[in-house]
Amino acid sequence: MAKVYVSTTIPASPSAVWAVVRDFNALPKWAPFVAESRIEQNRASDQVGCIRNFRLKDGGRIREQLMQLSDYDLSFGYAILESPMGVENYFATFKLSPVTDVDHTFAEWQAEFDAAPESEDALVAQVGRNVFAAGLAALKQRFSR
């Protein structure tokens, strides 16, 4: 099983960052690699079980299902249902925590998935760099203005 973990600090309070990322359909508002997103079957975007269907700027389409959401823990977890990446049993979590000596946020994004052995290392690098690190960098930049 492949594992990806990326973290950063964001110069904003956890509640301010959570207000941006909590909406499972908000990827186009903060993730630079997402062109458009919609929640299938007109379900609420914070309803566990909802499915987001989004198009990447490179044209790829991904469907993900919200598996958990906690306003208390400032976290959510999701599974990939369909993706051009060649991953199976993909589960990711996104979590925010306070940095207590300043009003900043520690953000963690991690995933585990199965992939063909010959493509596992490339997929770990791709998800880590092009998805998780890029998304967290965009959030950090958003709050650094």
Quick recap:
By secondary structure, the chain is an alpha+beta fold.
- What's the number of extended β-strand segments? 7
In angstroms, what is the radius of gyration? 15 Å
CATH class division: Alpha Beta
Strand content: 35-45%
- Bin the helical content: 10-25%
The H-level CATH homologous superfamily, spelled out, is START domain
In CATH, the architecture is: 2-Layer Sandwich
The coarse overall form would be globular
- What is the average of the pLDDT values? 95
Main structural class: alpha+beta
Low-confidence stretches: none
In the residues, how many domains can be counted?
1
Kindly report the CATH topology.
Alpha-D-Glucose-1,6-Bisphosphate, Chain A, domain 4
Q: Output the strand order for the largest sheet.
A: 1-7-6-5-4-3-2
Written as H for each helix and E for each strand, in order along the chain, the element string is EHHEEEEEEH
Question: What's the tally of helices?
Answer: 3
> What is the terminal-to-terminal distance?
38 Å
**How is the biggest beta sheet arranged?**
7 strands, antiparallel
